Amino acid sequence: MNGDKNSASANKSTGAVMNDLRLEAARKRLSESRSQEDAIEGLREIVANFLGSEEIGLFKVERRTATFQVYWSFGIDVENYDLVRALGEAGLQRVMRGECHVVRPDRDYSGAMVKVQAYIPIRFANQTVAILAILRLLPQKVAFDKSDMELFKLLSDEAAKPLFGSGVHSTPVVDGPGMRT
Amino acid sequence: MSKKILVVDDSKTALMMEREIVERRTTYQCVTASDGQEAVEKALQEHPDLVLMDVVMPRMNGFEACKRMRQQPGTREIPIVLVTTRGEESYMEAGFQSGCNDYITKPVDSAELVALLQSYLGE
User: Fold this and answer.
1) For residue A121, cis peptide bond before it (omega within 30 degrees of 0)
2) What ipTM describes this predicted complex?
3) Rounded Cα gap, residues A178 and B89, in angstroms
């Protein structure tokens, strides 16, 4: 059994092994966060070091008012950007259902006020409790690739608790339609 | 005896990843520091065979740490590779002026990093 496992591991491409290391490092960084502030710093580090962007916005879904509140941002003056509106109603519904929305580089951004490259739902208990928007990529990062999608999935599944702490339990459960941006 | 790399980054995530790459994908040992000042001290104590260092860090940035290491007889000859999110030519030029040997940008391509380390240290 072990032999098979080792053989499978040896056959794994270097890229796949490196991707596993990256996912492991991201998971460990989030789970070992000492506080919400440290988790936010961890999120910034993961996006900058692994996904290649230093422009990030995190929007928490606000149940009572059916709106999105800026929870934290880095590298952008988020008050000037209507980032969630740029996603559009259909896109917003998909993200609220738990799908990542990645903007293709050749896409027409008509209607969007800024060029958000990816929207990642942050999920807890099968609900989207926040949306992570990743904006401009670093010049050396051309586009997101398949391994980045795995990291998006990890953030989507595992970031809520470290980021919001016990507050995650009181986060909203409103799904897509009807949300005001 | 295996070669030793001093990995320097204030980001715990980057430090964790770079350390994992070095320890799992090469035969080199790894020691770490979390800012430029600590890097200069560790370089004098540990005598690494190569320094892999971030640029933007608190207390002392990578450029300044690089300059300091070049001024000290004990660390003058150690190859230094700077790692940063900033890929602009002017920024890289500043890195080389500070005395680094090489420069790579984040997100780090792991295979590229291993190849670069091996080009300095052998396999």
Assistant:
1) no
2) 0.85
3) 47
Search chain B and give the residue with CA nearest A43: B13
Strand A56-62 relative to strand A127-134: parallel, antiparallel, unpaired? antiparallel
Tens-level pLDDT at each residue, chain A (181 residues): 444 444 445 556 777 878 888 999 999 999 999 899 999 999 999 999 999 999 999 999 887 777 788 889 999 877 656 778 778 888 888 999 999 998 865 444 444 445 778 999 999 999 999 999 998 888 888 889 999 999 999 999 999 999 998 666 554 444 443 444 4
Number of structural domains found in chain B: 1
Question: Which chain B residues are within 8 Å of A50, Cβ to Cβ?
Answer: 13, 17, 107
- Give the C-alpha separation, A54 to B87, whole Å: 13
Question: Quick check: B106 and A21 CB within 8 A?
Answer: no
Residue A70 to residue A45: CA distance in whole angstroms: 19
Which range marks the domain in which residue B65 is found?
4-121
CATH number assigned to the domain comprising residue A103:
3.30.450.40
- This prediction's pTM: 0.84
A163 in reach of chain B (CB within 8 A): no
Whether residue B13 and residue A26 make contact (CB cut-off 8 A), yes or no, is: yes
Please indicate, yes or no, if residue A54 is contained in any of the structural domains.
yes
Chain B partners within 8 Å of A18 (Cβ): 21, 25, 110-111
Question: Are residues B13 and A21, on separate chains, in Cβ contact within 8 Å?
Answer: no
- Indicate the number of domains in chain A: 1
The answer to whether residue A38 is domain-embedded is yes
